[in-house]
Amino acid sequence: MLEEKLRKYATLFHPVVPFEWEKDKLWLFDFTDRNEELTAEQIANTDQFANYINSKLKENGCRYGIGGYNEHRTLYARSKHYDKVHSSFQAQSHLMDWVEEETPAEPRRLHLGIDIWGPAGTAVMAPMDGLVHSFAFNNNDSDYGSTIILTHILDGISFHTLYGHLSLNSLKNLHEGKNIRRGDVFTEFGMRFENGNWPPHLHFQLIKDMQGWEGDYPGVCKYSERDQWLSNCPDPDLVLQMSRESLVGSR
Q1: Confidence class of residue 44 from pLDDT cuts 50, 70 and 90?
Q2: CA terminus-to-terminus distance, the chain
Q3: Which end of the chain has the lower number of beta carbons within 10 A, N or C?
Q4: What is the C-alpha to C-alpha distance for residues 134 and 140, in angstroms, rounded to an integer?
């Protein structure tokens, strides 16, 4: 089972972002409707959203903000991208376009990865040896923007890590099958014009089965399909090891 292997090797994974465990702190963000400081309108305005994030990090002396896995982001009404309904949870479903309905019965709001919020240009490093599976510039508003997916093998079990909201420069000189070594700086946080129009951050996601997707994989799903998507996308902190209680500030 993948989760068991990730726990077995937890101490061997390289940090994904530069972080000094002895002194750096993280701020745990909440983008559900429990957060009364933030509105859907503020999130929809990238400048206001960025100001909120940056002010929280500065006020609390935190190097990065973090959070989001299995979070029902009811505040995410910033783009119709999250109101598009995916046809099904089947391997061949990526061959069909996102189906946009005039009034979708259920928008996608459940977040499948962990976000690390920090400055544009922040280095991103490979947590373990891997190969480039695929990459793409997903240039829709509120999409991933520049995206890289790596394939890894632990004790014979294959799985993938997805890195979204990167710089366009990260995609230069890449090719499928390129070898990426543990600790290699292979990408960086992108700016808003190249990362889907977001405040700078990294979307990091674990994926067991890519189901035929290349350069992209849903990072948000319908809440009613929560169990099947989470089953294929385990908790990224099994690799990141960043949500330790002693490191995360209170909301």
Answers
A1: confident
A2: 34
A3: N
A4: 18
Q: Angle at CA 237, nearest 5°, toward 235 and 243?
A: 125
Are the C-beta atoms of residues 150 and 205 closer than 8 Å to each other?
no
Q: How far, rounded to the nearest angstrom, does the alpha carbon of residue 25 sit from its chain's CA centroid?
A: 20
Burial of 111 (0-12, 13-18, 19+ CB in 10 A): buried
Spacing of C-alpha 77 from chain mean position = 18
Within 10 angstroms of residue 12's Cβ, the number of other Cβ atoms is: 10
φ, ψ for residue 163, nearest 5 deg: -125, 115
Q: Fill in the DSSP letter of residue 143.
A: S
How many alpha carbons fall within 13 Å on the CB side of residue 10?
A: 12
- CATH number belonging to domain 2-249: 2.70.70.10
> pTM for the full model?
0.89
Tell me which residue has tokens 């709001």. 109
**Measured between alpha carbons, how far is residue 167 from residues 17, 71, 135, 239 in Å?**
15, 25, 12, 22
Return the structure tokens found at 220: 């948000």
Distance CA 100, CA 74 (A): 19
Q: Burial, 188: exposed, middle or buried (Cβ in 10 Å; 0-12, 13-18, 19+)?
A: buried
Segment 62-104, tens digit of pLDDT: 999 999 999 998 766 644 554 554 444 444 444 444 444 444 5
Q: Give pLDDT tens digits for 205-250.
A: 999 999 999 999 999 999 999 999 999 999 999 999 987 644 565 4
The Cα–Cα gap between 56 and 61 comes to 8
Asked whether 161 and 206 are in contact (CB, 8 A), the reply is yes
